[in-house]
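Justification of resources, computational component.

The compute hours requested in this renewal are based largely on the per-chain cost of generating structure records like the one below. Each record pairs the submitted sequence with a full structure-token output. That output is archived, and it is also reused by downstream analysis tasks.
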Amino acid sequence: MRAGPLSDEAIHARIDSQAAEITEEVASRHGVSSWGSRLTIWKNWITDRAAAIDKKFEPRPKIVQPSGKIHIGARVSLKAGTIFSARDIYVTTDGTDPRAPGGAVADQASLLDSSVSLEKSTQIRGRVLHKDTWSGLVEAWYFVEEEPVSIVNLGISKIHYHPSDPTAEEIAAGFDNDDDFEFLEFRNLSEQTLHLGGAQFSDGIDFTFGAETISPQDRVLLVRNREAFERRYGNALPVVGEYEGSLRNSGESLRLLDFGGNLIEEIEFNDRGSWPRSADGDGPSLVRMESSSNGPFAWRPSVSDRGAPGIDDQLKFDGVSNLIEFALGSRTPVNVSREEDTDRAVFSYQRNLAAHSAIFVETSSDLLDWTVLDAVQIDRQYLTLGTAEERLSVPKEHAGAFYRLRIESP
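The structure output for this chain reads:
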């Protein structure tokens, strides 16, 4: 806790945030003078108190080299104590704790000489053992010639937060709760193998990835109950673990961090507004569309009413049929209307959400030269067979021009 939520920096930040809510003016009205000085005194007192408590414990060792990518054979050092008061450091390189339950040295732990040479990606964990007293744990991930996951190369691609009800056969097998069949899917967005080590959820569910990897453009799954999941989907899918907790059927906030605590993905979904209702218990999962947004328009219901875990749920254009019908779901006309009491135009059309195609709104003043508009989506009404009517706001300066859709097949 002192390394994170109760660090001196975190304590000061909490005091500052609460002080900002009160404000110096409010404090003065309540007879509190010298507000800034009082805050400084309070910060110093509480951090001095924390430091005094720290001294009651054996100090943790310090890892010298920062975590992250390293070359094969690189050495990682840990330090503890002083030249006048040496300390023994026990380390592991398999993700286990050097301290065994009960206080003994774990079988996998070794006494550190000076440093550890790494030949493969691993998590180093270390503790000081002085007499019969263990220090707190330190840990760090090192990736040997491998790429760790980050905000630019990994994404949550499916969320099955409210699966369909269990069947009679599933209930007979002991799985009578639809939450047992939840899953999250992750996709490698890059062209190289990624190491998932150290990535973890800080909100929504509880799970920390270990030594798992994910191939280029491939997918892996986290499930709530592996036995239930395999009962419904079989055991051939790329499940890498079970998470603790469950996804609320009314919506959830998910926050995924990398090995260093940096944000990879933050999603807040629910079963209201423009979020697809069919993903709320009817069988489909939420599927990430080709979008950089995290709002409801970045997601659609899966084509499969079983959530489509571990597979590509998009429909591919065959190059033969009509591209417009493939992308839009029919020959429904495109409409542009002027909103009352505003100067903006609203562009609406039907779309096949699962069709793997790119749709651009373009404008022209002479029907010869066309410019792509940065239109803002304002609504989506879900129809049948995976289609939806989308409404976009056209920039005010183009409200009197000609419009068209341009559809491309990747």
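Residues 323-408 form a domain with the Immunoglobulin-like fold (CATH 2.60.40). Residues 35-54 form the longest helix (20 residues).
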